[in-house]
Amino acid sequence: MVEIIKKSHQYIYFFGLLVIVIGLPLSTAMMSIGQMILVISWIVGGNYKLKWKQFLQNKTAIIITSLFLLHLIGLIYTTDYQYALKDLRIKLPILFLPFIIATSTKISEKKFIFILLTFITAVLTSTAYSFYLYLTSNFIDIRDICVFISHIRLSLLIVLSIFILLYFIIKKKTFIIPLKIIFSLIVIWFLYFLFITESFTGISITVFLCLFIVGYFIVKLKNKWIKILFLFILIFIPLFIYYNFNKVYKEYKELTQEKEVQIHEKTILGNYYSHDTLNKETENGYRVYVNIAEEEMKKEWNKKSSLDYEGKDKKNQDLKYTIIRFLTSKGLNKDSISVHSLTKDEIAAIEKGISNTVYLNEYSLKTRILKIFWEYDNYKKYRNPTGYSVMQRIEYWKTSLGIIKDNLLFGVGTGDLNIAFEQQYIKMNSPLSKQWQLRSHNQFFSIMIGFGLFGLIWFLITLFYPFKNKWVRKDYYYLVFFIIFLISMLTEDTLESQAGLTFYIYFTCLFLFGREKYFPKSK
User: Is 447 or 522 the better-scoring residue by pLDDT?
Assistant: First the structure.
């Protein structure tokens, strides 16, 4: 029985690779199970001395694995060992996946393509189920439809899938025309999904990769007229993006231009309005804190909704302020007549925390851009980023830089990041609400906070060392993956979650030394 297992260890290894790649968009448990299967396959495969020798000969694998050593060194001067050990558990795949994959039999191109197709199928399944929830569920935030992994991690997997499929469509003669048509439809679907989920990260990386690939073709192509065509495309894409951003910005400025509002003394029911004319806040150009008859609104609202006027909306905001802002955005007085005029859809929208009629079509890229403009304007006026995702990131980065300044060379250690952030928020007297006082949302800052300038240099070496190999610099799969991963780290702590870390270490190992060493060519 043992001999049979030993002979079949390659099949076990391949199965483990498939389980991980299916788990990436669908199940964190499957990621862990797949890694355990790889460990089992490595153990039953035997030849440990030979494998150790193979590993020592693979400098790229050694350097990538050394990132785990950096985290071990950070234990020397950390104080929170409980968090440090938790972090080491998350980072454990950095230690053993390069070792296992670098010392296992390289998979053939056929198996490699099968893994990629399996990965794309799993991503397609995840997006299809999320879209089902989008159509059938009563969710508050569009991100809530991504139930398997975070929407940002899923967007990275989608972008990688898109560019793998584009390679299959354009370069691979392995696939027949009907399959390429199916691949094209899947690409369109993935792009649509990025837009309906308002994935700025995914869309931005997609645009950058398109520009990068077009630029690559401009350099490589010899035909003068085709070069001119690609150069035109390279210029057109950013101009098109700028035009649309500017168009939305002009619409935003028109919406927010202050409009003249008549101040009334009494409502139709004879009650007095309250006014705060010193407060300049507006919704769609209308003053928010004038013409308010709160008792009337409260009585009428509680007739129309199961959510109490004095309670919270489904975004955990004070419901009455959501109502006031929504009515203001319609140009209405805040009284019983206006509340009575609200439709069922508008009531449902207010309950979900939507405070402006512009956001009724809340799941669109245009709406997301309008929200960002509004967030920025409010941040400039009140210097409070709470609840505004883009402005909060700026606060996270300011906090990160403050910690880095005080711990420049060696950082705070593997386990003390949470403590450092908590202390820095207090030191800065940050206006961020406690619940939003999170970490850096930038992997490079996270590394510097943990391990200082010394750690950042080490980290950058592990990232860029593979490019020492000429074939790596030419490999489409790895280049696309690396750009996706690199850009993601600018706005996310990509390596601080199981899904993000597995995404990085799995595809790094698979592309660099998990397959037969050759530059993939069309067949």
Answer: 447
Q: Could you give the CA distance from residue 28 to residue 318 in angstroms, rounded to a whole number?
A: 35
Run of H or E residues at 287 = strand 286-287
CA separation for the pair 521, 108 (Å, rounded):
13
Nearest Cα to Cα of residue 151 among 170, 172, 137, 130: 130
Given a cut of 70, is residue 235 above it in pLDDT? Answer: yes
Place of tokens 């985290």: 71
What b/e string do you get for 305-325 counting C-beta neighbours within 10 Å, with b at 16 or more?
bebebeeebbeeeebbebbbb
Contact 122, 26 (CB under 8 A): yes
Q: What are phi and psi of 19, to 5 degrees?
A: -60, -45
Assign 518 a pLDDT band (cuts: 50, 70, 90).
low
- Cα–Cα distance measured from residue 401 to residue 395, given in angstroms and rounded to the nearest whole number: 10
Q: How far apart, in whole angstroms, are the C-alpha atoms of residue 422 and residue 432?
A: 12
Indicate the range of 232-236, 407-411, 498-502 predicted with least confidence: 232-236
Q: Between the CA of residue 88 and those of 73, 132, 495, what are the distances in Å?
A: 11, 36, 11
pLDDT for 2 equals 52
Which tokens go with 424?
């820095």
Picking from 390, 376, 379, the residue whose alpha carbon sits closest to that of residue 252 is 376
Contact between 253 and 282 (Cβ < 8 Å) = no
Residues β-bridged to residue 286 = 283
Helix (H, G, I), strand (E, B) or coil at 114: helix
Give residue 285's Cα distance to chain centre: 33
- Sorting pLDDT into bands at 50, 70 and 90, what band is 523? very low
- In whole numbers, what is the pLDDT of the chain averaged over residues? 88
Q: Which residue has the higher pLDDT, 254 or 323?
A: 323
In order of 43, 109, 278, 372, the CA distances from 172 in angstroms are 36, 12, 66, 40
CA 513 – CA 19 distance, rounded (Å): 19
Question: In angstroms, rounded to a whole number, what is the distance separating the alpha carbons of residues 75 and 333?
Answer: 60
For the segment 169-184, the average pLDDT, to the nearest whole number, is 88
Say how far apart CA 448 and CA 493 lie, in whole Å: 12
pLDDT number for residue 520: 43
Question: Count of H helices and E strands in the chain?
Answer: 22, 2
CA distance 463 to 495: 12
Separation of alpha carbons 358 and 208, rounded Å: 29
CB 350 within 8 A of CB 344: no
- Does the pLDDT value for residue 60 go beyond 90? yes
Residue 256 has a pLDDT of 77
Asked if residue 403 lies in contact with residue 427, where contact means CB atoms within 8 angstroms, the answer is no
DSSP designation for 273: P
Q: How confident is the model at residue 519 (pLDDT cuts 50, 70, 90)?
A: very low
Q: Return the closest-CA partner of residue 287 out of 309, 256, 241, 265.
A: 256
Give 514's contacts (C-beta < 8 A, 6+ positions apart): 17, 101, 104, 106, 107, 112
